Amino acid sequence: MNLIKVKGIVIKETTYKENDKIITILTDKLGKISCIARGAKRTNSPILANSQYLVYSEFVLYKSKKFYYINTGEVINTFYNLRIDFDKLNLIFELTKIINNVTDENQDTTKILQLFLNTIYVIEKQSKDINIVIATFKIKLFDILGFAPRTTVCANCNKPLENSNVYYDYVSNRFLCENCTNEDKRRYIKISQATLIAIRYIIAADIKKVFSFELKNISDFKLFGQVFADAMTSGI
């Protein structure tokens, strides 16, 4: 039996048989995997903690023809304070739902794991406005997946976006100047220059530094993060 050591965080758990679970783990080496945790529902199980939602562990796995199984696990971080905070847990559940929707089994998710861990560390520390954190996560996630739009020039006329009002066309995932929008304004949201600068920073930044910016007016930044994520999720 070949044993595989990985680090990963549980982003979904499902009851399987009487005492077992099927857990989805976002790992550093194998991507997103589904794994059978035998006996994980028993109170004396050595992998009871490792198989719970949002627990980050070092796992030793083995694989049969079809499934991964947990052999042993060592907890790195339970993020306990987050898991008992209902409001924060709901927000994080939204993020794991997005991750599950936009990633495939065994796809390389190393950067996504780094981003997700960084995000929940920031939420746990309460060091930034939660709305900025959530929007930043969404923007960087879809940048990692290759869906970031151009942010320096209008996608239609190539004029610099600094010189005009800026609009995000969520139907075609493009930034446009005001002159290049059409009469149907329902497909656009207006973006301030401060928000555009923040979006540029997030796209260019290393994952470890992605939250290292300040933004005073967050209303359209929050709106962009939600609209952008919704548009990308519906298109995948």
- The radius of gyration is 20 Å
In whole angstroms, how far apart are the ends? 37 Å
* Number of separate helices: 6
Task: Catalogue the unreliable spans.
Answer: none
Strand content: 15-25%
Q: What's the helical proportion of residues?
A: 25-40%
- Which fold does the CATH topology of the largest domain refer to? OB fold (Dihydrolipoamide Acetyltransferase, E2P)
The outline comes out as elongated
Write down the CATH class of the largest domain: Mainly Beta
Task: Characterise the protein shown here.
The chain folds into two domains: 127 residues, OB fold (Dihydrolipoamide Acetyltransferase, E2P) (Beta Barrel); 98 residues, no CATH class. Helix content is 34%, strand content 25%. It contains six helices and eight strands. It is elongated. The model has no long low-confidence stretch (mean pLDDT 93).
In short:
The chain has 236 residues and is α+β, with helices and mostly antiparallel strands. Helices cover 34% and strands 25% of the residues.
